[in-house]
Amino acid sequence: MSVCENGEKFLESVEDVSTANIASYEVCFNLSRYSDSLYRQLNVYFPEKMNRSVSKRRAEFLAGRYASRLAIEKLRGNTLKVPLRLDSENRAPIWPVGIIGSITHTAWRACAIVADANKFLAVGVDIENWVSNEQYQSLQNRILTEPERLLMKQIVKIMQPRAFFTLAFSAKESLFKALYPMVRCYFDFLDAEIVMIDTNHKMISIRLLKDIVPNNFLACEGSVFTIHYNFFEACVKSQLVIKRT
Fold first, then answer.
1. Quick count: other Cβ atoms within 10 Å of Cβ 99?
2. 19 DSSP assignment
3. Contacts within 8 Å (CB) and 24+ apart, 204-208
4. In sequence order, what are the beta bridge partners of 205?
5. Rounded (10°) angle between helices 133-143 and 161-183
6. pLDDT of 215
7. Which domains are assigned to the chain?
8. Burial of 212 (0-12, 13-18, 19+ CB in 10 A)
9. Average pLDDT of the chain?
10. How many CB atoms lie within 10 A of CB 56?
11. Bridge-partner residues for 120, per DSSP?
């Protein structure tokens, strides 16, 4: 796919990280090379609300939506002629009919995953920069349950506490991003708990500790989800995919 010269300067790398039945792209970008004209050049919709945002937010939004455009085109096998629009209520992307997806970004990396809604119930992806020591110390009680803090101590020889904390934060974000489009209900970090971690296969099991909405088989107390993760030099990425049965 050809990208204009300015777009190439802004987009430092574009990687296809798709797996079977899941289309996904990761984009690394350079904030200092951002300009509003890139929205038109990269065929990404510029929502009116973005006029009130700083350049950093505009650049992150652009990179995430560009990654989602590539992922949709990969999944459908054709060019996305109408750019993704924005839900006026929660600012989430309005996906094409028959497609579900999730977008995440940091100040320099963005990722999007999309899937066929006939084959998958939900997808969620999240990238988090390593938390600072100050954040790790001050936010533990708001992010980690008591059993999670115990688990963090038990595996300290294979995963440092700050890495575990960042992973837990990211995994719970991915869980929220996957479930929210279906339940339309907010829930807290302490409403879910990591019950198993497999560092060899880079996967964790996370369990809901309460019913998110009544009479929902997926978002009920005791539901367990498998989340895959990967550590990078400066961040962690987590991803949840829920297939239809």
1. 19
2. B
3. 204/167, 204/171, 204/229, 206/171, 206/172, 206/175
4. 196, 226
5. 50
6. 84
7. 5-118 (3.90.470), 125-243 (3.90.470.20)
8. buried
9. 92
10. 11
11. 243
* Angle (nearest 5°) at CA 237 between 235 and 242: 170
Structure tokens at 74: 């990969």
User: Nearest-CA neighbor of 104 among 72, 168, 61?
Assistant: 61
Residue for token digits 């797996």? 19
Six-digit token pair at 96? 């094409």
189-224: per-residue pLDDT in tens?
999 999 999 999 999 999 999 999 988 888 999 999
Answer for the pair 11, 39: CB distance below 8 angstroms, yes or no.
no
Distance of CA 22 to the CA centre of its chain: 14
**pTM for the whole structure:** 0.92
Burial class (CB in 10 A: 0-12, 13-18, 19+), 183: middle
